[in-house]
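Box 3.1 A note on notation
Throughout this textbook, protein chains are presented in two layers. The first layer is the amino acid sequence; the second is a token string describing backbone geometry. Keep the layers aligned when reading.
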Amino acid sequence: MWDWSGLQYLLSIADTGNQSAAARQLNVSQPTVGRRLAKLEHDLGTKLFDRTPDGFVLTAAGEQLLEHARRIEQESIAAHRAISGGDSALAGTVRISATEALGITWLTPALARLQAVHPGMRIELVIENAAVNLLRREADIAVRLFRPTQNELVGRYLGLHAMGFYATPGYLERHGLPASVAELAQHAIVGFDESMSFIPHVRWLDQQISPDQVVFRSNSNLAQLQATQSGLGIGLLSCFVADRAGGIVRVLPDADVKGHEIWLVTHSDLRRSARIRTVYDHLADLIGQERQALAGQKSTLAAAP
């Protein structure tokens, strides 16, 4: 018998391309990943990866084993869902994924109210701007800003999440109120880290400004909010968050900034779970109540200073 638990290390290295990223994904040390891969290769008597300057590349044997590993992974996940998904008790752990802007400022208080009604619930909140893998049970429910595409997932469209430009009154008094997106060229900008360049409104902003205008960058929405509130420049922020933050006002309200669709997503098998279904429906109701605010329709527009 060979130790087939090592297949999860094969999967993680194949998905991430290197041992350090696999270690972070699996929440183990890098030497552990190296040892488990070496043991797997020893048990099978074959080399599974070529080590190259660009990362780990699967050998022909590795490619063949990966196909089997994918099937084993999916069967394992399906077995877990079949056992854990059919419970009827409003108790147990529900793991939810959301972006930083919505997860911290809005979702956390909402989940506290839910837990007060159902004290047997245990909530785990994963703050992640990139999408977690629901098929691998990295979360039970995800609040996503795009429509799900996998057939195994079910999603409910809940409205739009608007983005807008904001600045402090003090900044506008010193530098003037831009009358158009083109006039942003005359202003300091609170911008986004390169790791967020996959987001549509980040790419759009990069097309409107030059890099030397950006006086502050971050991959944290809350850090960008703090920088804008500190008067560093004009920030492109979530209207839902910024309108509640205080100390800043919205500018360029007619700017054609593409908003995000808001989708509540889970795996189809988990909808049989009473606790998953309860949290899913609760979140859908809460988001529905905030639909106008999420769409930026309650924003206070800046007047010329």
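The chain has eleven helices and twelve strands. The radius of gyration is 23 Å.
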